[in-house]
From TrEMBL:
Transmembrane domains' residue ranges: none
MF term (GO), any: DNA binding
Protein name, as recorded: MarR family transcriptional regulator
Annotated localization: Cytoplasm
Domain HTH marR-type: from-to ranges: 13-143
Broad class of the protein's primary localization: cytoplasm
Keywords of the record: Cytoplasm, DNA-binding, Transcription, Transcription regulation
Single Gene Ontology BP annotation: response to stress
Domain of life: Bacteria
Length: 154
């Protein structure tokens, strides 16, 4: 490696982490006005996506789907419950387990939210094939990074 190559390694524009960070912020900014129409924050929208996909889930499963811990998911659910979109109920057979389900209002919101994914695809300039390729690439990056982080913990 040349001295010039070594210097370039620390340029901001050469950092994959920064490119991912900047892209994430830009995409979240595109979501913001769309979600404002639903009066949802981006993290709340993600919780709703999980529940629209499969209703009646324990908090632990919602957190796992979103790669978030209980302490992060719980306040999101409390706000969604206060809005009347979800309901949390302790399981009779296991008091430690809380199941989250959509209310009729939460179910009805799904129809309004169906306009969001096409608007995002359009804003990103991606057709369905490009969107799918991007998702696959980002999943591969996520898996590789998690595997690398896990190896570092050994």
């Amino acid at each position: 490696m040349t001295e010039s190559d070594a210097r370039n390694l620390l340029l901001l524009d050469e950092q994959a982490c920064f490119a991912l960070y900047a892209a994430s912020r830009a995409v979240t900014d595109v979501y913001r006005p769309l979600l404002a129409e639903l009066d949802l924050t981006y993290p709340q929208y993600l919780v709703m996506l999980v529940l629209w996909e499969r209703d009646n889930q324990p908090i632990k499963q919602i957190g796992a789907a979103l790669h978030l811990d209980y302490g992060t998911v719980s306040p999101l659910l409390k706000r969604l419950e206060a809005r009347g979109l979800v309901r949390r109920e302790r399981q009779a057979d296991d008091e430690r387990s809380v199941v989250v389900s959509l209310t009729p209002e939460g179910v009805a919101m799904r129809e309004r939210a169906q306009e969001i994914p096409p608007a995002i695809g359009c804003a990103l300039g991606l057709d369905d094939q490009g969107r799918r390729a991007l998702i696959d690439l980002l999943r591969d990056v996520t898996t590789s990074a998690r595997n690398s982080a896990t190896k570092g913990e050994d």
